[in-house]
Amino acid sequence: MTRPAWHPDSLADRLPFLRRRGLLTQGTRAFFTGHGFTEVETPYAVAAPGEEVHLATFRTEQVWPDGRRRPLWLHTSPEFAMKRLLVAGAGPIFQLARVWRNNEGSDLHRAEFTMLEWYAPGLGMAGLMDQTEALLRAVLPPRVTCRGVTTDLARFERLTLAEAFARHVGADLLGTAGDAAALAAQAGTRLREGEDWEDLFFRLLLERVEPHLGRDRPTFLTHFPAAQAALARRDPADPRVAERFELFVCGMELANAFVELTDEAEQRARFLDDRARRHKLYGGEDWNLDEDFLAALALGMPEAAGIALGFDRLAMIAAGADRISQVQWLA
């Protein structure tokens, strides 16, 4: 029989991991304050949780003393609030925020977890990767082992998605963009029923590329196809790709980062496109478009780079834990 998380024996098993998490939290705050960042706190219950196609949300409700009500959602990221602060002139900022993503749960996922996010005005993608390397070297030992994988932090790999697909899939990712049949032919696979280019891209990424990343050394996977730009701007040198990267350590995805899109019109168009795709795939409840965030972009957001890093997974790596529940006080 599984012991509840509050059982004394259960907590005793987790205490070494939790104490290491506490030291990691202290070290993380020291790193950012030492580099001129300001720690911020933003609301968790928001009127619009974002338009990410594949994230499910938690709904709640605000009730006023006079009986008025409005729906709110627990945020999936503090990103939009923090970007508003960039517009306001907050400068370099970071946050250790609780976030909520429904319909998630595994050894590496929890519906409620902690996200470390930071934003640096004036920083580009290479600079943000340099900063991320410096953080990991500051708060982790030179070699880390987690879930049976040992990673040496002495040297980080920077690999474009096009290079990764050429190496591990044998396909020209950008040359086949939008053409599912061509990508399938080059990859030596059959298209599944109803599978479009994006579906196949994700399947090949998950099955053939990601298992090779962030193992003997950390890997930055960079320059996502423009269709996967999310909230990143397109690369001025090659508009086929976005200035976006993910970081893998000990074989796990640890972070997702963008050189931020600051154009209000393009962001509005992406919101509407993502909303239409989400409705088509999942239907479900909706919220008003985040006009407040779009108004902030229209006023003028400084050029900046930002990153969302799964702090519980970083704690797993620091402590050598096998499951995310081992680094949470009550899971």
Structural features, described:
With 331 residues, the protein is of the alpha+beta class. The chain has a domain at 8-43 and 78-156 and 245-327: 2-Layer Sandwich (BirA Bifunctional Protein, domain 2), CATH 3.30.930. It is built from nine helices and 14 strands. Strands 1, 5, 6, 9, 10, 11, 12, 13 and 14 form a nine-stranded mixed sheet that branches. β7 (143-146) and β8 (149-152) form a beta hairpin. The longest helix is centred in the first third of the chain and has 27 residues, at 8-34. The relative contact order is 0.17. The model has no long low-confidence stretch (mean pLDDT 95).
CATH A-level architecture of the domain at 8-43 and 78-156 and 245-327:
2-Layer Sandwich
Mean pLDDT: 95
Query: How do the SSEs run, as a string of H and E?
Result: HEEEEHEEHEEEHHHEEEEHHEH
Structural class: alpha+beta
Q: What's the CATH topology label of the domain at 8-43 and 78-156 and 245-327?
A: BirA Bifunctional Protein, domain 2
Supply Rg. Answer: 20 Å
The largest sheet, given as strand count, sense and whether it forms a barrel, is: 9 strands, mixed
- What is the number of helical segments per DSSP (H or I, 4+ residues)? 9
- Can you identify the CATH class of the domain at 8-43 and 78-156 and 245-327? Alpha Beta
The CATH superfamily of the domain at 8-43 and 78-156 and 245-327 is Bira Bifunctional Protein, Domain 2
Report the uncertain regions: none
Distance between the termini: 17 Å
Quick one: overall form?
globular
Number of DSSP-assigned strands: 14
Beta-strand percent range: 15-25%
Helix content: 25-40%
